[in-house]
Specification:
The structure is a single chain. By secondary structure, this protein is an alpha/beta fold. It folds into three domains: 71 residues, Arc Repressor Mutant, subunit A (Orthogonal Bundle), CATH 1.10.10; 237 residues, Aspartate Aminotransferase, domain 2, CATH 3.40.640.10; 120 residues, Aspartate Aminotransferase, domain 1 (Alpha-Beta Complex), CATH 3.90.1150.10. It has 16 helices and 16 strands. An eight-stranded mixed β-sheet has the order 3-7-6-8-9-10-11-5, covered by helices on one side. The chain has a four-stranded antiparallel β-sheet with strand order 12-13-16-15. A two-stranded antiparallel sheet has the order 1-2. Helix 13 crosses helix 15. Bound molecules: pyridoxal-5'-phosphate (PLP). The site of pyridoxal-5'-phosphate has 14 residues, from helix 7.
Length: 491
């Protein structure tokens, strides 16, 4: 990691060190923390770094600032709501039926005048808008015919070279000729599914899963089999192994790095075990790595693809969450299915938008992507922490909330029996948009869950809006838990 990035993340390292001392009991509840000046000397860090570290811990609810006295360990530092429970879906494949409901939800998302907790789209302020505009302007001034003609599959060679270089970060050593450029990650997933399976096929997915995946499976006439999914560890290979002993699965479509909506991260050993297990059964894995670059921990996690020896993993991603959703540029590294994917890509959309491919290739070539990502991850991390703190303080007792390790959404499990669709309608009346849990499963098992996107910076109006959602949830929660705020109950 470069020096600039190290200093940018320094405040987080200091915050984590203090949090460790608190969680292991070396700093007891109520203890006064060193003054900002003293800690800055001790840590050999700037005053601003220490202030940022204390502010982060305050937002996380671990320390509190007392006027004129400094920072103190909170009396109840562990009072974040617990994580959601591991899902236990019915393990029966079924044709997907939620497409119409989700289409209706998405129509509202397109209207601009709602507080935007629904769509997992990063705010423009987080994206490199000016740099991309400059690059696009330069492309349009070129005197050759750049971007005018079809960039037929596999797509722009410079962009594929840049992806090849980046693949080392994912634990892979892919060459430019291992990639096919696609129209976003959705097309990559769609091509992947069509290349490995036919209508009626059984596709194993996480539960909850991104509704776009469910809709794609529905559109292709395939069946979804939802797998038990741990909120922070994702799918466990042992569960899949048990299922594979009993029934045939035609393909898996998983997001080992930061499932949307859980933000779960499969440990590397699990990824290796998963790839090996699927290889034994000759089952292809379509890996959705769209959030892989938005890790909130220090290091970029490896992909499942990096453990692939048989060409059975089809790695899919895009620049939609990190650079420019509107450019619609994604990619697939389809292993042994390369020719098939290339052929279907041509039949599907002929080629991907050529100027946008050139612009992204240039953005990557100029070395701007890493710098941009490190800034973006820092903002997203802060935005998630702030949202979690508001949920902790304003949602009813019995609420559970995810601890995303990447991406920028929070998965909130409301007290059992709370109808999140009702909550969604009440939120809309208040001009607040969010995603109710029913969009993330084919088995309607997340009725009491919502997904909150943290893609926008917090301001007073957004803070008040999320607190309002908490207030409505408290009204709708069954009697035994309604009305009590998490913070009040536990303090
Ligand atoms: C997990 C996941 N996969 C794929 C997509 C679609 O990506 P794209 O916009 O690049 O098609 C999204 C977008 O929200 C997503 O969250």
């Amino acid at each position: 990691m470069c020096g600039m990035q190290q200093s940018r993340f320094r405040y987080r390292a200091v915050a984590r060190k203090i949090a460790d001392h608190i969680h292991t009991g070396r700093l007891a509840p109520g203890t006064r923390l060193p003054s900002v000046r003293r800690l800055s000397r001790q840590e050999d860090a700037s005053i601003t770094t220490i202030l940022h570290a204390y502010e982060l811990l305050e937002r996380e609810g671990v320390v509190e600032a007392r006027p004129q006295s400094g920072y103190f360990v909170r009396a109840d530092p562990d009072r974040m709501p617990p994580e959601p429970k591991e899902s236990q879906p019915p393990l029966r494949p079924a044709y997907v039926e939620i497409a119409d409901t989700v289409s209706d939800l998405l129509k509202i998302t397109r209207q601009g005048d709602y507080v935007p907790f629904a769509a997992a789209i990063p705010a423009s302020e987080l994206l490199p808008v000016r740099q991309l505009q400059r690059i696009m302007a330069a492309i349009s001034r070129r005197t050759d015919d750049a971007g005018i003609h079809y960039d037929l599959p596999p797509g722009n060679p410079e962009l594929r070279s840049q992806l090849s270089r980046r693949s080392i970060d994912w634990g892979c050593r892919l060459g430019p000729d291992d990639f096919i450029i696609t129209t976003g990650c959705m097309e990559a997933l769609n091509l992947g599914l069509r290349s490995v399976a036919r209508p009626g096929a059984v596709i194993a997915i996480e539960s909850p899963a991104y509704y776009g995946i469910l809709m794609t499976i529905a559109g292709l006439g395939m069946q979804a089999l939802e797998l038990p999914t741990h909120p922070s560890l994702g799918v466990r290979p042992a569960d899949l192994e048990r299922i594979l002993k009993r029934r045939k699965i035609d393909a898996c479509l998983l997001a080992p790095n930061f499932n949307n909506p859980l933000g779960s991260l499969m440990p590397d050993e699990s990824k290796a075990e998963l790839v090996e297990l699927l290889a034994r059964h000759e089952v292809p894995l379509i890996e959705d790595d769209i959030y892989g670059d938005l890790h909130l921990g220090e290091t970029r996690p490896r992909t499942a693809k990096s453990f692939d020896r048989k060409g059975l993993v089809l790695l899919c991603s895009s620049f939609s969450k990190t650079v420019a959703p509107g450019y619609r540029v994604g990619y697939i590294a389809p292993g042994r299915y390369f020719e098939k994917v290339e052929q279907i890509k041509f039949m599907n959309t002929v080629a991907t938008n050529a100027p946008c491919q050139i612009a992204l290739a240039e953005f990557l070539r100029a070395g701007q992507y890493e710098r941009h990502l490190s800034r973006m991850r820092e903002s997203l991390s802060d935005q998630i922490q702030s949202a979690a703190a508001i949920i902790r303080d304003t949602f009813p007792a019995g609420t559970r909330v995810s601890r995303p390790q990447g991406g920028f959404v929070l998965w909130v499990e409301l007290p059992p029996g709370t109808d999140s669709h009702h909550l969604y309608n009440r939120a809309l009346e208040n001009r607040i948009n969010l995603m109710p849990g029913l969009a993330f499963s084919n088995s309607d098992r997340f009725r009491s869950c919502i997904r909150i996107s943290c893609g926008h910076a917090w301001n007073d109006a957004r803070r008040a809006a999320l607190a309002k959602v908490g207030g409505i949830a408290a009204e709708l929660a069954p009697k035994n838990s309604a009305g009590k705020k998490l913070a009040k109950k536990k303090s």
